[in-house]
Amino acid sequence: MLYSRVVSRVFTRSILNRCQIGCLVFCSQDQQQVLPNSNGFQSSREAADKVSSSRAMYLSSSLALHGFPRRYHHETSSVVEEQTDPFSIVADELSVLANRLRSMVVAEVPKLASAAEYFFKMGVEGKRFRPTILLLMATALNISVPGSAHHGVIDSLAAELRTRQQCIAEITEMIHVASLLHDDVLDDADARRGIGSLNFVMGNKIAVLAGDFLLSRACVALASLKNTEVVSLLATVVEHLVTGETMQMSTTSEQRCSMEYYLQKTYYKTASLISNSCKAVALLAGQTAEVSVLAYNYGKNLGLAFQLIDDVLDFTGTSASLGKGSLTDIRHGIVTAPILFAIEEFPQLRAVVERGFENPTDVDLALEYLGKSRGIARTRELAMEYANRAAATIESLPVTDDEDARKSRRALIDLTHRVITRTK
User: How far apart are CA 286 and CA 169, in angstroms?
Assistant: First the structure.
């Protein structure tokens, strides 16, 4: 409480002028609305290769379109003074978290223990994207307490706060991995992170139980924080994960072709975890409601950008680069942003989508339409817009002279660029 009150005084409500993000001007190009003839369809791989051929062009132009960090600060701010590798800043902490996570998922039953630690073993931990965001956000929001208090007390309070914020990162990662285990069962996936998926290796029942076990461990860690608002936030995340997955499984034909429905589902399945975890970190630091909302909005917009690029990579990436199968969504009948944008150019595609892609010929047809459209390009542009919004929220945080906080803010903005330009 003492620390929270002091921090609240330090972070005044004086907020920087919001960055003005101009509307993205979508590149216009003439499209010949020519339908493929009945016997001239390419194979799904050839069509996918055609879609993929545009990737290099859009990656090379993404710096200009996205306005790599310096754009957000142009004349008014010195927050972005140098490029900073976000992952290297928190590398030591990530190692500590990884070891702690491995110890947290130990179970009495050997088979359950082996399953629970499956994606926490060294070498298959994944990008650790979410913990990196949360540790950087924690530093970005923590300001040194004025020297009126005894330095020993300050250090003790700061260390305790950091431990609690690290706990949020651990909880978030356990919830995330649990959702992956459950998703792989629902999708009948056979690969994840470059290795066999847990359901493929140990069976569906063990995979489901391992996911449940991770969620239970996350709940225990969450309860230890003794903060009802934070508990409510992360409990809501679990609800959102279930809601999003159910939305994906039970769509009407109208919903399958709705961008609004797609974005809502994407928020539930991906962005809710990042956004609410960022807000939890802010709340633990005793931040004002306004700053907590900024942290939430950063996570929400970055999460949406991340998933939009994921949807692009499902068409343009390779199984080797993704660590799982490409064209996975469309082969499971899941309609994502590139196809939705393609429908706007080729309304005939809607009938194909409504059939559900159970026929491989329909997959080929959809890829043919996608290759003729700007679906991939427009999805990247929408992702860039969300990434720009995420960067703007960091620019809107209260001014600080704390160099560690400034460095972390630069890194958070750098992450918005990395999300857009990633290839796996």
Answer: 17
pLDDT at position 72, please? 42
Smallest Cα–Cα separation from 312: which of 281, 340, 346, 336? 336
Structure tokens at 205: 């029942």
265-293 CB burial, b ≥16 within 10 A, e <16: bbbbbbbbbbbbbbbbbbbbbbbbeebbe
Residue 390: name the closest of 348, 424, 359, 418 by CA: 418
Positive or negative, the Cα torsion across 235, 237, 239, 242? negative
Half-sphere exposure of 332 (CA within 13 A, CB side): 18
CA-CA distance, 290 to 242, in Å (whole number)?
Answer: 28
Question: Is 14 within 8 Å of 399 (Cβ atoms)?
Answer: yes
For 143-182, the pLDDT digits (tens) are: 644 444 455 555 677 888 999 999 999 999 999 989 988 8
Alpha helices in 188-288 (DSSP H): 198-202, 204-224, 228-249, 253-256, 259-266, 272-284
Per the structure block, which two tokens stand in for 103? 């110890």
Structure tokens at 100: 């702690």
- For residues 160 and 6, the answer to whether their CB atoms sit within 8 Å is no
Report how far residue 335's alpha carbon sits from residue 258's, in angstroms, rounded to the nearest whole number: 9
Closest by CA position to 36, among listed 407, 357, 361, 360: 361
Which residues are paired to 191 by β-bridges? 196
- φ, ψ of residue 104 to 5 degrees: the values are -75, -25
Phi first, then psi: give them for residue 192, nearest 5 degrees.
Answer: -160, 130
Single-letter residue type at 220: V
Helices 289-316 + 129-141 axis angle, to 10: 160
- Which residue(s) pair with 196 in the sheet? 191
- Closest C-alpha among 415, 320, 423, 420 to residue 80: 415
Low-confidence ranges of the chain (pLDDT < 50): 1-81, 144-149, 319-325
**181/118 Cα distance (integer angstroms):** 10
The answer to whether 183 touches 248, Cβ cutoff 8 Å, is no
Task: Find out whether 248 and 265 touch, Cβ atoms under 8 Å.
Answer: yes
What pLDDT is recorded for position 33?
33
Token pair of 252 as six digits = 């009407």
Q: Are 172 and 134 in contact (CB under 8 A)?
A: yes
pLDDT, tens digit (0-9, with 9 covering 90-100), for 311-369: 999 898 754 444 444 778 888 888 999 999 999 999 999 998 888 887 888 888 999 99
